[in-house]
TrEMBL record:
Family classification: Belongs to the NADH dehydrogenase family.
Domain External alternative NADH-ubiquinone oxidoreductase-like C-terminal span(s) in chain numbering: 366-424
Reaction it catalyzes: a quinone + NADH + H(+) = a quinol + NAD(+)
The protein's name in its UniProt record: NADH:ubiquinone reductase (non-electrogenic)
Gene3D superfamilies with a match to the protein in the record: 3.50.50.100
Pfam families for this protein: NDH2_C, Pyr_redox_2
Recorded GO MF terms: NADH dehydrogenase (quinone) (non-electrogenic) activity
Span of domain FAD/NAD(P)-binding: 12-337
Residue intervals passing through the bilayer: 389-406
EC identifiers of the protein: 1.6.5.9
Domain of life: Bacteria
Amino acid sequence: MIEQPTDPDRPNLVVIGGGFAGLAFCQNCKVPTRPNAPAPEIILIDKQNHHLFQPLLYQVAMAGLAATEIAAPLRAVLGKRQDITCLMDEATSIDPVNKKVVMGDREIAYDYLVLAAGGRTSYFGNDHWEKHAPGLKTLHDALRIRRRVLTAFEKAETILDTAEQERLMTIVVVGGGPTGVELAGAMGELVQKVFHRDFRRIDVRTARVILIESNERLLKVYPEELSASAQRQLEQLGVEVRLGVRVSNVHDTHVELNDGTSIQTRNVLWGAGVAASPLTAAFADSAELDRGGRIKVNPDLSVPGHPEVFAVGDLVNLTTKDGDPVPGVAPAALQMGKHVAKLVEHEFKHGKQPPEAREAFEYWDKGSMATIGRKRAVAWVGKLKISGFFAWVAWLGIHLMFLVTFRNKVSVLVQWCYSYLAFRRGARIIIPKNDDKPDQPGVRD
C-alpha cells in the first residue's frame, strides 16, 4: 500500500465526493490557521473531475442540453482556494480504525472525514437489469440513455419489420418519483414536438411513452392534488401512466409486470430506486444502516462511534424535528455541507467537542419541484401548491440560480430560450460508445 504524500504535521480534512454536499463543505469551510502550526489542508477526492448539476441530468438524457452545460470542473470552481487539493481518484474503502481512506493501491490519512459520496441506482437486488434499463446518476448515464433513445428511432426509420418498429418506438420509464416524471415528460415532449419533424418513413404519432409506478399515485411525497396534476400534465403529452403495478423482470425485448402483462420495448429507463454509496459499509459495526445503505447519523451529522467522521447528502438517514425524513435533494445536501463546515471551523478555533455538545443540524425545507415539460411542472413550497406554467417558471429560475458557474447559467439560459421559441433540441447528437465504431441501433452496451 502506497501512502499519499502529505505533511504529517498538517491536519487533513478529507472530503469524498464533489457533489452538492461535498462542494458546499469545501466552499464554506475556511479553517483558521493556528499560531506556530501548519495550515490545515482540505483534500477533495472524486472519481470525476467535475461537479455535476444532477437536477438537469434528464435534460442531457433527453437531448435538451449538452453535457458541458450542466457540469463545471472542480479545479476551476475551487481554483482560488490554495488550501484545497483536488484528487481525481476513486475512494474504494475506508479504514475508520486507522483513520485512512483507501484509493486502490494508495491511502491517505485524515483528521476529519466528510463522506459525501452520494448515491447509486438501486435495482432492488436485480442488478442484472442494469444492462437493459440504465439509471440516471452520471453524465455517462445521461449520454447512454440519449444514445439509446435516438439510435432506436433512427433504426425504426430504416427497417421494415413492423413489430420491431413498435418495440423501438416504445419507451418505458420505471418509477413515478421526480426523476421518472421528468424523464417521461421530456420524452413525451420530444416525441410529440420534435421527432415528428425529423423522421419521414415512420409515423412518430404511434410512438408510446409508458410510465410505471408501483404506488397508487405519482410523486407520493407531494400533496395528492399535485400528484393528480402531474399525471394530467403527463397525459396531455401523450404519456401512458400505469399505477399500482411493479416491474417483475426486464429483458432485451420486453418488460414483465407483476399483473401478468408485458410490454414490448427496446427502451427501458430506470428511475425507481436509489441506494447509498457502498462506502457506508465501513461503518456498519458502529452505526445503523437502513435498507438502502444510508447511515443513521447523529443529530450533528457525525457517524455514531466516529466523531471525526461526518456523513452528508444522499447517504444520510435523518429525520427532522417533526419526524419527517430529510429528503435526498440538492437543497438538503447544500445545507448539510454548510453545517459541517461550520462545526469543523468551530472545533479548530475552540477545540474538539463530543457529538452531543455540537449544534444539531436543522433542515430548512425550501419546497419541492418537478418539471414535466415545456410550461408544465408542479411546485410545493410550504402551504403554496402551484402547477402548470407558473410552477415551470419558478422551477426554471431556481435551477438557474443553483448552477455553479456564470458560464453554465448563460449557456443553459440561451439553450432553453432556443428550445422554447423553436421547439428544437440542439443536443440531438448520437455519440458513439468508443472511438472505433458507432453504436449499432438496438444493441446494448
